[in-house]
């Protein structure tokens, strides 16, 4: 298959060659503006080397400006930068005087003072983060969706003694069989007597957040001396294929990420207003919030209920909206449904507006039109009416969705890519680029290369057919595993040297596991995944081998191949059924036909769907792991060349063999 050539003007480029290609890999490339030296600090200023420097300078400069907001009395109410700084100092002092963060020496030469936080986004969460920055504590955030297995693992690995948490999170703690060394719970919210009794019976000492702050106010302690190499946070990644891994991220890592965010086309400024609802334990949201605090912007926190998100947006009217493909897809579907209901002259005008704006977007990267923007006034109001920029990350987004939203909301939507291990930002797109659904170019603190993956037929020497107009030409386009290096790359996994060595090589290259190709403008597009895990559009990781091991035990199933795409919200399954089982069921259902024909019979397909659902639930598969879209393949995988000599499934081959079936299944989404 050929690729259509980009519409981007030839003088525009995301990256430039920094080092020649070596055997088995592409050339090393850097951001065009930072080809000589990767960016480490904001504006290359030496006075900002740690996050303590960063926030202190911002608080001094923006003392009287609104900083953090909470929803109180039916509206968002803000406290100033000076008030945030003061409360963070009081909180940090209270933690210190009450001895809630004891120093441990458990990782190389790092002396860590660990504190946990377990709560949805809220003002106190962020103030605790700033207190930790001021007093040299290391934050360990817990996702509010963590289960009873992951929580004890993290507690035991970190030996955390103190956790700050919401009332809801205490219920999750009570479901855990182990609590490690955790003994101190600092509560953001009041709890009822029954819950308090249960927690005390488990051996927990309970503190009120405001009491810790008040104690610190009466005994203010000097700020800690922090260094670029000080561990700012331990971010635990999703553990769908085993236990979660704790990524050690330093102050220098995050300072460089903030500096690079300033160099993107987001153009963050002090007039920006942001609604924080994506989980703060995720580095993407945390980086954006800290970057906004650096420029003196306002950050408000949603009420903790996604069902109220639209109301929160209307109340706050943010200038920036950040989300993930799953939510953008919902907005897209809702907007398209409303447009389909328009009739008469208005319908003609809307159709003309869509056609015209899509055309200029894809050819000139223009987002507004003085005439046709009027057709989308209601859409703009969905996001508060003053949104100047949208950002998407976590998973790829479909081209049709992002292009439509760009013209409907009348503003740029930047696509970003990064990992926990690269401090969230590694690549981002630009306003000038009319092409969608790719990563854009490297961040100012990042250099990248593609490393050959010969077992999947991806190499730096690959030749791909390119369409230029109506002509098809062959062009060498490097493909391979995306590898990153720079000041934003983490230092390793906490207490896990083996996993660290698998991810960081001896030259400090971070191996992402994503397969990419270099675009004509020096950007990167993801085309595959090296490791046998993938994300759905919800941002959730799926481990297909685990699922297949369960499917293969379902009544009537001989073999299975589970597949998913990051732009889809569900998996599909290719099932090789047992011939005798199908024949028996056909007799019971009084169905006619040979084995091949029966595999296409909807009643037989529905039976397998039902079997998979029942058995999957019995074996603790969640709803995303139970395929509702399946294809019954009469031929064994070995006959189709999908297995190795040791009878292991070759996923990249199976993906090619069943490409048409997969495409057809996604067309009939349930």
Characterization of this structure:
By secondary structure, the chain is α/β, with parallel strands linked by helices. It is 34% helix and 23% strand. It has a 6-stranded antiparallel beta sheet with strand order 2-3-21-24-26-27, with no helix packed on it. Strands 6, 7, 8, 9, 10 and 11 form a 6-stranded mixed beta sheet that branches. A hairpin with a 2-residue loop joins β6 (103-107) and β7. It is globular, with a radius of gyration of 26 Å. The relative contact order is 0.10.
By CATH, the superfamily of the largest domain comes out as: ANL, N-terminal domain
How many separate domains make up the residues? 4
Strand content: 15-25%
Annotation field: number of helices: 21
Strand order of the largest sheet: 2-3-21-24-26-27
Number of strands: 32
Percent helix: 25-40%
User: Which term fits the overall shape?
Assistant: globular
Rg result: 26 Å
Organism: Paramecium sonneborni
Domain AMP-dependent synthetase/ligase: 60-494
Pfam families: AMP-binding
GO molecular function: ATP binding; long-chain fatty acid-CoA ligase activity
Reconstruct the topology from this structure.
Elements: E1 2-4, E2 15-19, E3 28-31, H1 51-61, E4 66-72, E5 75-80, H2 81-97, E6 103-107, E7 110-118, H3 123-135, E8 138-142, H4 150-158, E9 162-165, H5 167-174, E10 184-187, H6 193-201, E11 205-208, H7 209-218, E12 231-236, E13 246-250, H8 251-262, E14 273-276, H9 283-295, E15 298-301, H10 309-316, E16 320-323, H11 325-340, H12 344-364, H13 377-382, E17 389-392, H14 399-409, E18 413-417, E19 427-428, E20 441-442, E21 447-451, E22 463-468, E23 471-476, E24 479-485, E25 492-493, H15 497-503, E26 510-518, E27 524-529, E28 534-535, E29 541-542, H16 544-551, E30 557-563, E31 572-577, H17 579-589, H18 595-598, H19 602-618, E32 629-632, H20 651-657, H21 659-667
Parallel strand pairs: 1-22, 4-15, 7-8, 7-9, 9-10, 10-11, 14-15, 16-17, 17-18, 31-32
Antiparallel strand pairs: 2-3, 3-21, 4-5, 6-7, 12-13, 13-25, 18-19, 19-20, 21-24, 22-23, 24-26, 26-27, 28-29, 30-31
